[in-house]
Structure formats: structure tokens, C-alpha cells
Amino acid sequence: KQARQLENELDLKLVSFSKLCTSYSSTRDGRRDSSDTTPLLNGSSQDRMFETMAVEIEQLLGKLTGINDKMAEYTNSAGVPSLNAALMHTLQRHRDILQDYTHEFHKTKANFLAIRERENLLGSVRKDIESYKSGSGVNNRRTELFLKEHEHLRNSDRLIEETISIAMATKENMTSQRGMLKSIQSKMNTLANRFPAVNSLIQRINLRKRRDSLILGSIIGICTILLLLYAFH
């Protein structure tokens, strides 16, 4: 029970640890692409969280190792049959799980450290680039502003063109719908003109059915009376 509890806790911790490392990488990439003035590394909170989670996972791995050692001592004790296959299978399964969790933890930790080291190396390079940009003079700043304004104008033109194309498509769609409505209206008028003739035909059919029912009922009544007269005679 203790081994299963620790394994479940380790599984949750490792999932959270892997998500933290993934979010660390994606956050750095997003900051790198978002703005030139954003610092490359300002994730001290993520670093502290990484250290805390790493310590917690190492402690849980140590506890699980101790539990596995105790189970191994129990299976090797004199009071337990040496040929108990179920106990040996259970112990081997817990050892495999511990080995997998340990490998996954070290792999995720190594990936995180590699990403952080790479970002630290790139940080110094970007700081040099930013210092060069900031010290290059007012002309570069104006040129940069002009380029951004030009990009904004291009985006506005693109949005206007997209709006016009949507309006044209809407107009064509409404025109086609109007044609469909006209055809439906003409069909409805045709049906309305034909309806009196159909109604009269239905009334005739109903009258004929009533007449046939009366005739059939009369025949059945006469036959019944004749049978009764024949039975009593």
C-alpha cells in the first residue's frame, strides 16, 4: 500500500514537473518572439518552482527506494517461502516502476537544465544586441517607428480587403437566397391554385366511402336477419 501510494504521488508530481519544463520552454520562446525590449530571462519564480519540485520528487524517490528495499528484505527473510512467485513478481513490478520514474525524472531535469543553460547563453547575446540598438541613435529609432507604422498600414489594408470580400460573398449569398425564396413562393402559389380541385376530389372520395359503408352495413344486417329467421324456423 505504501509503495502504491508513493507511486501515485510520484506520477502526479512527474506530470506537473514535465508541464513546468514545457511551459518554461514555451514561455521563453514566446518572450523571445514578442518584443525586442522584453528581458529574455525573468522566470525566477519558475526556477524556484523547478528546484522545489525537484527536491520533492527526489525525496519521494528515496522513500520509494526504501520501501522497495524493505519488501526485498521481507521476501528474503526465513519465514517467507523462497518460491513465492507472486511476491517476487510484485517486487519486480515495483522495482520496474521505480526505475521508470527515476529515468523519467532525470531525463526531464536534464532537458530543463539544458534549456535554461541555452537561454542564459542567448541572454547575454541579446543584451548586447539591445544595447547596440539603444545606442545607435535617434535615426534608427525613427526608422524603426516608420517601419512599424508601415506594417500597421499594411495590416489595415489587408483587413479592409478581407471585409470587402466578406461583404461581396454575403451579397451573393443573399441574392441566391432571394432566388430560392421566389421559386418557393411560385410553387406555393401553384399548390394553392390546385388545392380546391384536390379538396373536391377528397370530398367525393369520402362520400363514396360513406355510401359503400352504408351499403355494406345494410347487406350485413339483412343477412343477419335472414339467418336468425332461418335458425328460429
Automatic annotation (TrEMBL):
<dbReference type="GO" id="GO:0005484">
    <property type="term" value="F:SNAP receptor activity"/>
</dbReference>
<keyword id="KW-0653">Protein transport</keyword>
<dbReference type="GO" id="GO:0006906">
    <property type="term" value="P:vesicle fusion"/>
</dbReference>
<feature type="transmembrane region" description="Helical">
    <location>
        <begin position="214"/>
        <end position="232"/>
    </location>
</feature>
<protein>
    <recommendedName>
        <fullName>Golgi SNAP receptor complex member 1</fullName>
    </recommendedName>
</protein>
<comment type="function">
    <text>Involved in transport from the ER to the Golgi apparatus as well as in intra-Golgi transport. It belongs to a super-family of proteins called t-SNAREs or soluble NSF (N-ethylmaleimide-sensitive factor) attachment protein receptor. May play a protective role against hydrogen peroxide induced cytotoxicity under glutathione depleted conditions in neuronal cells by regulating the intracellular ROS levels via inhibition of p38 MAPK (MAPK11, MAPK12, MAPK13 and MAPK14). Participates in docking and fusion stage of ER to cis-Golgi transport.</text>
</comment>
<dbReference type="Pfam" id="PF12352">
    <property type="entry name" value="V-SNARE_C"/>
</dbReference>
<keyword id="KW-0813">Transport</keyword>
<dbReference type="GO" id="GO:0015031">
    <property type="term" value="P:protein transport"/>
</dbReference>
<dbReference type="GO" id="GO:0006888">
    <property type="term" value="P:endoplasmic reticulum to Golgi vesicle-mediated transport"/>
</dbReference>
<keyword id="KW-1133">Transmembrane helix</keyword>
<keyword id="KW-0812">Transmembrane</keyword>
<dbReference type="GO" id="GO:0005797">
    <property type="term" value="C:Golgi medial cisterna"/>
</dbReference>
<dbReference type="GO" id="GO:0048219">
    <property type="term" value="P:inter-Golgi cisterna vesicle-mediated transport"/>
</dbReference>
<dbReference type="GO" id="GO:0005801">
    <property type="term" value="C:cis-Golgi network"/>
</dbReference>
<keyword id="KW-0675">Receptor</keyword>
<feature type="region of interest" description="Disordered">
    <location>
        <begin position="24"/>
        <end position="44"/>
    </location>
</feature>
<keyword id="KW-0333">Golgi apparatus</keyword>
<dbReference type="InterPro" id="IPR023601">
    <property type="entry name" value="Golgi_SNAP_su1"/>
</dbReference>
<dbReference type="GO" id="GO:0031201">
    <property type="term" value="C:SNARE complex"/>
</dbReference>
<dbReference type="GO" id="GO:0000139">
    <property type="term" value="C:Golgi membrane"/>
</dbReference>
<keyword id="KW-0472">Membrane</keyword>
<comment type="similarity">
    <text>Belongs to the GOSR1 family.</text>
</comment>
